[in-house]
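Example record

The entry below shows one chain as it appears in the dataset: sequence first, then structure tokens.
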Amino acid sequence: MKKIPRVPLIIGGIFALALAVVIGTTIALKQAEQGLKVTQLEGKFKDRTGATFVGSQTCKKCHERTYLEWRTSLHSRMMRDVRLEPLANIGDFVTPSKVRTFGKEDVDYVLGSQWKQQYLKRKGKDLIVLPAQYNVFDGKWKAYFPDNPNQRDWFKECAGCHATGVDPEKKTFVEMGIACEACHGPGSNHVEALPGYEIPTIIQASRLTPALAAQICGSCHTGGRDKEGKYAYPMKYQIHKGIGNIRLYFDEFTPATKPDYFWLSGESRHSNQQYLDWKKSEHAKVGVTCITCHDVHRSKSALEATGEVPNPLVVIRSKTRLFEDKLCKSCHTTLQYRSAHRIHTFGSCVRCHMPRVASIGEAGDAHSHTFRFMFPQATLKAGGMDKQPNACNACHHHKKTPTEDLVAFLEGAKKSDMPMPFNVHRKSP
């Protein structure tokens, strides 16, 4: 009888033993993992219930790239401590000013940096908004509620839109500026989420209905008072973003309740009321929201790499996904130009459908977000540009043209034969 070689038998035995060890170890680890889930991570970490604020530094541990993009945004620099960042104070405290009644040494925090800057002074636990703001563009000081101390109580009038995790009763906040959790909600449950339940433990606007997604931005880009009338921001809404309805926590300004905050046409006449305009728009009806056009995470360098932004300033100013007309035409793809569009092919969708309705810091433009064309006829009816602006007069080329001529020009542009608009340019036939 032939002898079976021992070496193959030994090798086979070792392989079978190793396989048994691997299988046994895998089963044991799975059981241990399941036991850990049951004993330590059950329940609370499957959703947002009971979540608390942890700060953006915690978010950075997993989302480093997004964190670094946010750190270069205007949202992150909305509020800064000048004791930690002295150069954040960009106001001119050297040139004498009759408007400014305080000195640089009085400032503990600064608010804003692009169009205007305002200043806070700590007084015990309170933060007081000092009675002058610095307009960055023209380098001038402007009075800011000098005779109304109620308007200068930062925790009541401003805190919810300049800091994250604000508790106005305790007069505390978790983080300066519009940080991660200001939009994504308290993150403690997300940090320790049960594996497979990471998504339900945090807010993602792209996963919400259009109305709920827009409300997140709208909680700051609006105007009104909370239901109790104590705060100028929806204080109780901050931990309910993405789930709750902002209307249950906040009474928004309307033309009926606050006529001074709106033009006769219904468009907002103050900055930071974009949400109120958007709700009146056709965009709102079809689900085009803030994040459809804006991306607060992507930086100038990231957009330039895609070749999407020929003018990088738009990224700094408004964080749009594409530049002006290119953004509009990514949805509005009509090839035929009719009526007024036939003589404005050199112009901009934004200049006509998002005209300037207010100024920010004497230079920055606050644009209408109803996306409706503001007709010059409305200016004539109201009695002048100071009572009702229009898209035509707002354009640099036509800003001194009589409104009556612009009305006639538009009527002519609507006709199929496009007659020469002599009256607009004061020419005779």
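Notes for this example: The radius of gyration is 29 Å. The first strand starts at residue 79 and ends at 81.
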